[in-house]
Amino acid sequence: MELAENKEEVAMSSNTCFERNWILTCNSLQQIKDEYVCVVCQQVASNPHQLVCKEHEEFGDSLIVGESCLKRYLQESNGQCPILQHTGCEYSHSELVQKQIDDLTVRCPRQYQLDSQAVQEKGKIFPKKDEPMTRCSFKGRLQDVNDHLENSCPLELSSCWFKPFGCAMILLKDSEQAHLLSQVQFHLDLVKTHVQTLEKKNQQFKVVILT
Ligand SMILES: [Zn+2]
Ligand SMILES: [Zn+2]
Ligand SMILES: [Zn+2]
Ligand SMILES: [Zn+2]
Known about the structure:
Layout: H1 20-24, E1 48-51, E2 64-66, H2 67-76, E3 91-93, H3 95-102, E4 105-107, H4 109-121, E5 139-141, H5 145-151, E6 157-159, E7 170-172, H6 176-182, H7 184-210
Antiparallel strand pairs: 1-2, 1-3, 4-5, 6-7
The protein binds zinc ion (ZN) (4 copies).
One zinc ion binds next to loops.
């Protein structure tokens, strides 16, 4: 089977906020201060900005929002502030919070992805032998994660070839084959459902044309 196409790198985007549960694997709840949490997505803010609008000065200085969340929010809400519905939102990059977040200790995000997937899927459709052999033991500061992923992470992740049909598994390069071999029926069912949906759509389309 040709697997070269349809590969996309499953990577952590450095723009979006950081998953709280990932950070919590190395930090206690107390270590994640309120001012680290993005007011839009409730995860740990990436590129934290502080909202300093005078409309809600009384909320103090803990109104932190991740840059990409803020930009998306302002765009979707026609410039309305995420805290109170007012325009003319004022914000500035918070270097202090940025430094504190950068200093948080974290594990390898790829290993985290694989582990949380293994927990979710355990005992369901994916048998034990699909579990990855290679592990990454990286533990370091959040600001060093991208460097780790680019230069020293032993894990190479990819999506299942049947992703377009609905298989959401994230696979290690060396467990790809095992997954495909052990999940033949599961993948066939996905394709079958997909084809049936297409046929149904096609029929509805014909009915529309004929009537
Ligand atoms: Zn966010
Ligand atoms: Zn505001
Ligand atoms: Zn790693
Ligand atoms: Zn699959």
